[in-house]
Design brief:
alpha/beta
Length: 107
């Protein structure tokens, strides 16, 4: 009887680290998926900027968080350019909110 209890305790002690490791791997995997998703959204927006003649892909910076919130920063030559950058970002799949922090360059 004592041997059976001891064996059970040893098995439990060996299994606990494995379950903890599995939980850590799950959180790492989820984190990687979120970061890849954020990067994909950012890349899609930047690609649309590069195709657009009105928006400067080099001056408008795009940052996407893990909830699909996009923050636009950098500079634009006009209000129309900044508005177009926001419009493109809002129309991108996966974007939940766009924060416009673009500064206008003096003329």
């Amino acid at each position: 009887m004592k041997t059976r209890i001891a064996a059970t305790l040893v098995m439990a002690a060996l299994i606990v680290p494995i379950t903890g490791y599995a939980a850590d791997m799950k959180s790492i995997t989820e984190s990687v998926k979120e970061n890849v998703g954020d990067a994909v959204i950012t890349a899609k927006i930047k690609a649309e900027y590069a195709k657009d003649k009105e928006v400067s892909a080099l001056k408008v910076k795009v940052d996407t968080d893990n909830k699909g919130v996009v923050t636009l920063s950098g500079s634009a030559g006009s209000r129309a350019e900044a508005d177009k950058a926001v419009k493109i970002a809002r129309g991108t799949k996966g974007v939940s909110l766009v924060k416009d922090e673009i500064t206008l360059l003096p003329k």
